[in-house]
Amino acid sequence: VHMKLVGDAHLIKCPFSRYFTSVCAILGDEIVLIDSGIPSSPDEAILPYLEALGRKPEEIAYVILTHGHFDHCGGARLLKERFSAKVILHELDRPYLEDASLVDRELNARFGFPLAKQAQFQSTSADITVNDGDTLQVAGHELAFLHLPGHSPGSMAVVDRELSLYVAGDSPQGKGAGRP
């Protein structure tokens, strides 16, 4: 189920195996996506939802990634190449975006199994990297970045204080990076 969250922020559920991964879309004078799902998410879920709301995919100006794992950044390359969207993520997760096999190698080393074929995505580059406390004016909103290391070194939340919106791609982890 896709739904309006608050103000002009919407939740888009993107199918992923038996589960789903979420993308948040902020629909201001331009479109900002928080996360991009797996590689098939733009065509299967994100673009159809935006078009159903009467918005054009060419309005996607930014894709902000909460972290560099395949289920959150897998659609970034397509959105960047097709619509010239600028890709933003925390500087510590840049290596995951630029080397799509890095997550697979790390999980295989830690847990002894490779990722599923569905988890594979194509590397791309970040246009902008951010750090804890940085802010960005986009789509008529001031977005702040809160560094939440643990799930990945550069995991972060995107915060819109005006909307009282806090988006973390995966749950912040109080027990640190040892958890899958």
Describe the structure.
The protein is of the alpha/beta class and 180 residues long. The chain has 5 helices and 11 strands. It has helices at residues 41-52, 70-73, 76-83, 94-98, 102-111, and strands at residues 3-6, 9-16, 19-27, 31-34, 60-64, 86-90, 128-130, 135-138, 141-147, 156-160, 165-168. The strands form 2 sheets. The protein has a 7-stranded mixed β-sheet, covered by helices on one side. Strands 8-9-10-11 form a 4-stranded antiparallel β-sheet, with no helix packed on it. A hairpin with a 2-residue loop joins β1 (3-6) and β2.
- By DSSP, the count of extended strands is 11
Strand content: 25-35%
How would you describe the shape? globular
State the helix count. Answer: 5
Class from secondary-structure proportions: alpha/beta
**CA radius of gyration:** 15 Å
Largest sheet: 7 strands, mixed
Assembly context of the chains: single chain
Compute the average pLDDT.
89
Helix content: 10-25%
